[in-house]
Fold this protein.
Amino acid sequence: MINDFFNILLPQGCLTIFILLQLLIGMFASPKFHKYARFISLIGISLSILLLSTVQTEPQYFAFKNSIMSDSYTQLFHFVILLCGFFITLLTKKLTNTFKQSSYTFNALLLTAILGALSIVSANDFLTLFISIELMAFPTYFLIASAKGYHSKEAAFKYLITSAVSTGVFLFGVSYLYGITSSLNFTEIYEVLSEGEPTLIYSFASVMIVFGLISKLSIYPFANWVIDVYKGTETSVLAFLSTIPKLAMFGILCRLLVFPLSLGLELPFIIAIISLITAIWANTYAIREKDAKVILACSTSANMSYVLLVSALVSVYNLSTVIFYLLCYVVMNIAVFAFLNITEYEDIGFNVANFKGLFHKNHSLGLAYTISVIGLAGFPITSGFVAKIYLFSAIVNSGLVFIPFLLALLILMVVALFYYLKLILPMFEKATVDTKVLKALYSQKFVLIITTAITVLIGAYPEKIIELCRFVAYNI
Amino acid sequence: MTEITLYHYLFVGLFVFVLGFAGSIVCKNIIKVLICIEFMLTGVNINFATFAKYCGGSSADGFVMILFYTAIGAIELAVALYIFYFMHCKKQSDNIEKYGEL
Amino acid sequence: MYNEIIFYSASFLILLFGVLTLVSWNIFYSLISAIIVFFTTSIFFWLLGSEYNAVIQLAIYGFAIPIILGLGIMFTNLKKDRPVKFGFSNSKYGLILVCGIFILAMIYIVLISLLSVPEIFSTQIIFDEFINPHSNFMVFSKGIFSNYVWAFELISLILTITVAGLTIIKRVGRRAK
Amino acid sequence: MDILISIPFLVFFPMLASFFIMSPLFTNNEISIRRFSKSIFGFIFLYTIFLLVMFDTANPFISKISFFGLDWIQALGVQFSFKIDGIGMILVLLTSFIFFISAISSKMNIRKNHKFYYSMLLLLMSAILGIFTASDMFVFFMFWELELIPAYFLIGGDFSLETNTEAKKSAIKFVLFTFLGSMVMLLGILLLHYYSYMTSQTLTANFSEIFTERIPVIIKLIISACFIIGFGVKLPIIPLHTWLPDAHTNAPTPISMVLAGIMLKTGAYGIFRFNYQIMNDVFQIFAPVLAIFALVNIIYTAFVAYAQTDIKRIVAYSSISNMGLILLGLCAFNQIGLNASVFHMTAHGLVTAGLFMICGIVYLRCKTRDINTLGGIASNMPRLFGLATLIVLASIGVPAFAPFISEVLTVISAMFSNLGIVLKVSAIVALPLLIISSCYMLKFLHCGFMGEKQEAFAKINDITTHEFIVLASVVAGLLLFGIFPSALLGMIG
């Protein structure tokens, strides 16, 4: 058991130690030092990124009687999650300044959520998966509720109710799967099931499991939370909410779809249909909206539905496109929220009309934001363009049946372009006297510029990253 | 009376689950919504216990799952009530429609 | 024979009070009905041979949860005793219909799978052969401390972090006032 | 040194210059920005002439400048490859020339945000050069989409002294229409790529290596339809044309020149590249249908243009009409038709750039574009009137100017096409229509310039030397190709 720990759990153990450290320091440290809480988190995350190199990936390693595992797939997701965590921790400075003493607690919560995401990706049985989902969810409630005012509480409550219901649905499906196979372990379930014909109750259970998992991805049956929650949440927390849970959920969903849930024939079609419904809903909802947060909520929902559609059509090639799209999407999203984080604390607000003329006063920040939004819309020189082509080529490869889906998605991309344009166009209008020169912190500028640079670099030369994704997809 | 089989238990679990699911969507009273979420949990737990007994093999993972889910459900309820309390300080109502500011 | 009587009466109680919880006008009545449902569930666990779970269910859902919920109701519901309207709004009848269809479909699916793969749901494995009440506790400890040790650690972390999280909301709430 | 004499240098040099101008390193001084970017455009023009000299017409695929490859997305077999053939060479030359003159004429029209304007103009040039030289479908598509961003900002941007709210709306309309088209085109590209891979087992997206013979006919029809819709938005084919008049009217004058002169040609070029070359067997099925659409283009817009009162709109509609002629040439599906089509692209590019320039000059002097209030300015502006007369005559199709040759060639090609009766009929119908189409251009000249002298326009000045050089070079180009058509036709091969 100790061997197990040292072979694959060192990064997560490191994070755990830093969580406890934060809590302890929070109890005893003098209030003046609250500014340094961020740095403890940053050190913890960087250390666990370093410790990722100690994890055994070749061949796959199963620890604690197959309950958790590691391979290059999990390692890639761990790396991306930790990187996002690093950027998000940098963004939280303005928020943590508002609650001085508690900033240790806040950072501990953020680290716990990241730890939960890591555990989700590496889980190899349903019990560990369930606990990890909850481990990620509980700190998220508090992170959402930690901002000032009433709205954050309401957002947290809605998020809690939705995820509690979806957990119930998820576990209901798991209970039937457990009944059929008398095991909770992915590997054993797959072995047992692949011997016989899939039954109706198996399909039912897998549909329930997927429905339970996709609520965090804001896909249709549980999608309505996304707008309310995004409205009420502070932007740095939102940068967390729109990236890390998505990464973690897709990390595990792809594994489930490849192994234990891959045997039913109905599941891909059901997922494809609900993701198409979500895409239509999200894209049409955003047309009338003027709030930048709501538009981004819809964009999240829409992007996730495209990815889900592809990940439902299981193949190795599709898996690599899914991973690549997720990587690109996450980086661009953090850049957008970094910019919104700057504007939020400059009292500009989230109505897109308030962004008027910002570009003319803040060239570099405005340009970085514009590039990221254009990337989300899927224009060239950004990684979004390559990701879009690569993702949609996967749908074509899956057969003629899905061509109508692809056509629908492509037309929805045009609708999406309309609302993405709404996000950036006011910036290029004539500057008025009121237009502010944004005072950004170094950390915010750093995040914005680094993420934009990554976006452009991947867009210019995606070959290495795609190769990595293909390698990972082959090794799942 | 016939012998009690797996299916009897499963139907009860299913019924409680669906009751909780429907209630959590339909109910207007927030406390009631929370109770309904606990009902969903109960239904799932009955399912797990049934399966652990009738086709669980020797490991009885289902019972462990019940234990964990019970704990998680209790914590969830406490957190939900706590956040609800803060919301209530502002609104003074327990009707879910009053909380639609966002 | 006793098992059957206990089962049918308990399930009747669960169904009755489950419905009562949803439809009762007063929130206190629905809480009491819910407590009864939770109690009877522990009887189910006992019937299924897991006394440990039954006790946990009794302790948490029989006593702790009702107290929390009762306190919550008293805190939030103290000032006004106006009756809340009947629990369902008119537009939700469709949803109830869907739920009914869902139940029927589930029953159908379960029965179909009984026909197609009888050996999976066979009741041949008799519970008492390998789990007797005495060894029940051993099963738990084996599960928690060998298979799911990482999950168990994570649960303890959840508890810790929840307490910390509660403090963070409280402080912000105080400052907001 | 090799990299300096290559197409990627041609394509990416404007892009790098654009980033350089955009960057905070570059000065904010208006004059130095203008001079710098003008010199860049001039350099690119000279560079394309240099490429033309290097270009080996006999075997374009061997010469050193014509090919360049680098793996871009290996999973899709996408190479970052460029290639110039004769048609590409002509269009590249036209592009660099029109961008050069539009940059020169920007001096009078652009009053604000110079840094942004010139960097976007350079980026647009880069994208369009990329479209004309890309030899890989996905690279082509990349430049096709890249073009939208600068085009949006140039049409809807805030560059003149008075604000124009219509411009933003029409820019959004332009972007959404074109994006819709490009999305449908993406579907076609993906399908073509996938089926080419399935039938030949070679993973490539190169134009010359795409293998279409064994693809089922139905799939081919779907793919071709996707391409026609995608390029038809840009061309524009009639039901998809509504973005064009607005965008062209509301854009600043230099941008209208670029839009009508070059951007519309990218649509025709796309149809040539994808439908005419790659999917050529299915194109024979589509060609008669497209010929009907082309006829509708010519007829409908000729009448609509005659009804317009805004001089810029007249020119905008006339360019739709001319694009119909180009499409008709392609539909003839023979060598003469192709020659005529490419020749007309060049000729019309020059003509329409000149016409938009004239509209801009008139608007700048008279502050109005309404044909009813204009008039009587000919005597004040003799030089402009002279040049305008020449260009309008050219656009009507008077012999000795380039459009005459292409129009005649188009009609001949349609007549001798072996794709059935439809094309022959359309040739017969198109011939008198060309005369009708001259009506609106004469109306433009007559009502705009001649007539009684007006008090309001008494004090306006004639064109400056700057403008004179631009317009004169356009006329010179038209005359050159009109008298020596073989200079162009020889390159098409």
Summary: Residues 2-489 of chain D form one domain. Chain D has one domain: 2-489. Residues 109 and 330 of chain D are 36 Å apart (CA to CA).
